[in-house]
UniProtKB/TrEMBL annotation, chain A:
Residues 7-79 form the Transcription regulator PadR N-terminal domain. PANTHER family: NEGATIVE TRANSCRIPTION REGULATOR PADR, TRANSCRIPTIONAL REGULATOR YQJI. This is PadR family transcriptional regulator. Transmembrane segments: none annotated. Signal peptide: none annotated. Coiled coil: none annotated. It comes from Streptomyces carpinensis.
Length: 180, 229
């Protein structure tokens, strides 16, 4: 999700100036990092350069003069296209656990032992999260966050289990090939 | 750890083959009173076989199972069935409810076998069905229950007599994630309340996370972490 597309989407509601766009972004996405004004300004310049937005005049409103921007026809189309597109599932997740297991395999280390130790650490964390979410006093926000974390840790564990099994199979195959 | 309580149930170097198929090849496990342990591992790694040996349902070919000072693996059949009636509660992987009895009577039966009058047994059984979220239609027979409902009934049946050790083989296998959460919360809550030890076999890490610790089985052998010498 880029600032460019967020601004296009916000401008789709009507002409607006940079400060107003920043404020609306920060209101709509309270969990996200607030937009820096400089970033809003440079992004607006690029949208103009690419023919997706244009200057619609200035708006003084008592204070300093502000440049109003609005979408061009191309910009509207781009905003609609982006909002309607299904997000591509990330093809590959780069992850530290994954990297370490690969390194262990490449360098002749002990990936199985590493996987076992990592599993223990994951299970410890999952026990903490389970205790957190099943506490009688747990609030909905806590429960949802714990569910989210538990499901992602669980996904890691499934990959680790599959990898462990593959390592065993691959080793067995290698041994057979060596004997042949 | 040195301050762990004396184990209630101990399995040492269990070996068991089904015909020529080895199921256990030196599994070890300790369960303290009130402790909740998850046994996990791949399909066919020997989890159910281990549970059956521990609960005195199957005799191991080698090794020892000791429960509160008694050698379970060497007990005569009569003492074994008494133990299973009084001290152990078992949830089988594939249900094993009695098809001719209603859900309520399935749960009440262990109490009646122990001498409780029918009406009192049914009243307590109803409470346990309620606790596991299966109290709505106690008159249904196992054939009329969904897989998940049957599992809840089987859990209620295992706990109705107040066992000191509960053995549960994939008790949430047929449940979705929220139903699993409900059943596991009830199981853990009951165990904490009554001081029962629980051995839960599962392939689901999110279910295993309700336990105090995990024992992993791989090709009939327990891996690392679990044995305190
Ligand atoms: N009654 C039986 N007769 C023959 N072989 C059996 C029998 N029960 C189990 N086995 C074999 O023993 C091994 C261990 O089986 P077990 O049922 O203990 O595995 P499990 O870990 O519980 O698997 P799952 O996760 O699929 O329930 C497997 O190879 C299985 O095929
Ligand atoms: Mg099994």
């Amino acid at each position: 999700m880029s600032t460019r597309h967020i601004l296009l989407a916000l401008l789709a509601k009507g002409p607006s100036h940079g400060y107003d766009l920043k404020r609306r972004h920060d209101d709509h996405f309270p969990q996200a990092r607030p937009l820096a004004y400089g970033q809003v300004y440079t992004t607006l310049q690029r949208l103009v350069r690419d023919g997706l937005a244009e200057v619609a005049g200035t708006d003084a409103d008592g204070g300093p003069e502000r440049t109003l921007y609005r979408l061009t026809a191309d910009g509207s189309r781009e905003a609609t296209d982006w909002a309607g597109q299904v997000t591509p599932p990330a093809p590959f997740v780069t992850n530290e656990i994954f990297a370490k297991v690969v390194v262990a395999i490449l360098t002749g280390g002990d990936p199985a032992a590493h996987l076992l130790a990592q599993r223990a650490a994951h299970m410890d964390r999952m026990r903490e999260l389970t205790a957190l979410k099943t506490a009688p006093s747990a609030e909905l926000g806590t429960v949802l966050a714990a569910d989210y974390a538990l499901n992602h840790l669980d996904a890691d564990l499934r990959w680790m289990t599959t990898t462990q099994a593959r390592l065993t199979t691959l080793t067995a195959v290698t041994v057979e090939v060596d004997r042949a | 750890m040195s301050n762990r309580p004396v184990p209630l149930l101990v399995a040492r170097d269990l070996v068991k083959a089904h015909g020529s198929t080895p199921a256990l090849r030196g599994a070890r496990l300790e369960l303290a009173a009130g402790e909740i342990v998850a046994v996990t591992g791949a399909s066919g790694s020997g989890k159910s076989t281990l549970l059956h040996c521990l609960a005195g349902i199957v005799r191991p070919d080698g090794g020892a199972v000791t429960y509160a000072g008694e050698r379970v693996d060497a007990l005569p059949e009569r003492r074994l069935s008494e133990l299973r009636r009084t001290d152990f509660g078992v949830v089988f992987q594939f249900g094993q409810l009695i098809p001719e009895l209603t859900a309520l009577d399935n749960v009440a039966l262990p109490l009646m076998l122990a001498g409780t009058a029918r009406e009192a047994a049914q009243e307590r059984a109803a409470g346990w069905l309620e606790r596991f979220g299966a109290g709505e239609r106690p008159g249904l027979r196992p054939g009329e229950l969904s897989g998940g409902q049957a599992q809840r009934v089987a859990l209620a049946r295992a706990l109705v007599t107040g066992p000191r050790v509960v053995f549960a083989d994939e008790p949430t296998g047929a449940l979705d994630s929220l139903a699993s959460e409900q059943v596991m919360t009830a199981l853990v809550h009951t165990a904490r309340e009554t001081g029962a030890a629980v051995l839960v076999v599962t392939h689901d890490a999110q279910v295993a996370a309700y336990a105090d610790r995990e024992v992993r089985l791989q090709d009939g052998v327990t891996a690392g972490l679990e044995v305190c010498a």
